């Protein structure tokens, strides 16, 4: 809860208690006034008890032991650096996996669509995910002469995975219960294996209609 709401709710808890209301009645008053933003039951009863014992301050009690040093500028900067480095590390690892997927894709095109492979006129469409824009990915695309289809930013309605694949997988998996990661992977593979050629054809037809509407709206 934001600090200003916490102070406001605490002040009003003290006011309601002065009217002789119990903790439960005080909580009911706060919920009627603030709905879902009201303080939780435990906090309300804690403040009600404090005010009942004569408490007047809304500040937290001083804690025993050594003073907290977790919010020093040095620690804040260290945490910020760690978060940034972890994000960079995650993007790098994801980009490496994405490049391995692209290698399989190139090989499948060479074997299954030799006419496209020889002509070299096929395009790759991605959705601007960080791993798609990573340096390792861009170098891979350049080295292998893969042309990408530009995707407008913040446009999940134009990404087939977002409007076709993920919703279909969620629909088939939402009633399932899993005991672990391996179960999730296995069932996800089963769902993907059940997709038919016409499912993908319909998805690409939808994709074309969506980008036509997007262009017309400009």
Structural class: mainly alpha
Reported for the largest beta sheet, the result is: 2 strands, parallel
Tally of discrete structural domains: 3
Beta strand count:
2
- How many helical stretches? 10
Write down the secondary-structure element order. Answer: HHHHHEHHEHHH
Helix content, binned percent = 55-70%
Measured distance between first and last alpha carbons = 41 Å
Low-confidence runs: 65-70
Shape: elongated
Strand content: under 5%
Radius of gyration: 28 Å
In spatial order, strands of the major sheet run 1-2
Mean pLDDT: 77
Question: Can you walk through the features of this model?
Answer:
The structure is a single chain. With 218 residues, the protein is an all-alpha fold. It folds into 3 domains: 3-52, Arc Repressor Mutant, subunit A; 74-151, no CATH class; 154-218, no CATH class. The chain is built from 10 helices and 2 strands. The chain has helices at 3-18, 23-34, 41-52, 73-112, 114-119, 130-133, 135-143, 160-173, 181-194, 197-217; strands at 123-125, 147-149. It has a two-stranded parallel sheet with strand order 1-2. Helix 1 packs across helix 2 (23-34). The radius of gyration is 28 Å and the shape is elongated. The protein starts with a helix and ends with a helix. The model is unreliable at 65-70 (pLDDT under 50).
